[in-house]
Amino acid sequence: MKTFIRMTGFNHDSLARHLFPGDGCEAAALLVCGRREGNDVTVLTVRRVIPIPYECCSVRTPVCVQWSTETLDDFMAEIWKSSASVIKVHSHPTGFNRFSDLDDASDGELSTSFDCLWEEGRMHASAVLLPNGRIFARTLQHGRIGPFVDAIMVVGDDIDIFRGSESKSGREDDRRNRQAFGEGTISMLKALRVAVIGCSGTGSVVIEQLARLGVGAFVLVDPDHVESKNLNRIVNATAKDAEFEVPKVEVMRRMIQSLGRGQEVIPLKTNLDDPDAVRRVAECDAIFGCVDGAEGRNLANRIAAYYVQPYIDVGVSLAADGVGGISTVAGAVNYYAPGHQSLIERGAITQEQISAEELNRTNPERYEQLKRQKYIQGVDENRPAVISVNMFFAALAVNEFLARIHRFRNMSNGECGIIRGDLCESALFREPGQGSTGHLFKEIGLGDQLPLLGRSSLSERQ
Question: Is the overall model pTM greater than 0.90, yes or no?
């Protein structure tokens, strides 16, 4: 069983401000968390940060902080009602990168208290924040101190991943020279599990790149099989695959496993609007959305909010000019971190489009018409020669992810929330990723809920 913690960049910044007030003394805070509890993984997803007021601490020195668990009383009803987990976080202003003997005694008492309050044995944790931003943590469960948390991910404009109890510094200034596109990239990606939603034109190219870069595990979601008409744009698909109607996810699994790297692949021949698919995707470290439909893109965005994951959405748009030519060859890569604007708020998709697609499930004829026109608007073309366009924007999407984990850009990642490309103008444009209190803000970190993602359709299928 592996254990992970995920928090937003806003959570991390809030913690740092409170835990390092400038007086050189330790401070403490609590994190109220949702959970994703799978067969082989538990993820604690941070919902909110609760600072322990300095005046409520009986002791605050450079090596010790003491506070009363009575602080929990004000939040007990919320924790009970939502079946939340709690993480205690305190600072080590001296930079001491291990749990101290005092920490061991305190965490032992806290774990016993938690077990008395929540007798079902839900998982909690204790964490330490260092001055350089790094966090390490261990589990608290069944009244005992458990093993170290395998990884803590901070999802913001940048993506930080702190693993286990390794005493490495966080946010190194030389990261882009020492790691980017070298051994640092390889080792980091090998430890990641990535979900790719859609295994067709852009999805197959994204998967190809991630597999060869060395991503350790994949969850692939696509309901369709290979057809002869799309052999010109699905990488690694063959005529035999079309003849035998091989699922696209199986073609991608075959390709990944042919590399001989022992990469794990979970192929799901289903739509994302499926409880098992949602749960599997929720366990991943990052999500790539490579679908055209607004409903699927919105659902992937929603999963990323509930389970605090980075979401990279790639879309391609071509439009006919009505006289046999093309007036638009464009695309966009959207990077979403929980707390940023969603795809709806950015205008990438609309609620009207989502509703229309839901209604179209009952109108197959209209649905097929929309599918035929999904690549080139204004012309009925089911064999579009778009592989070069797909590859271009799929590469932008993968490099967007690498930029977030390595910071190799010459500007802040916050300036690059959206990368738009217009191939007719041979131009790329960037737009900032902005914070938002939009429709997904209250869903951040909720984790497993009944119904899943607050959707009755998922409840009915569980």
Answer: yes
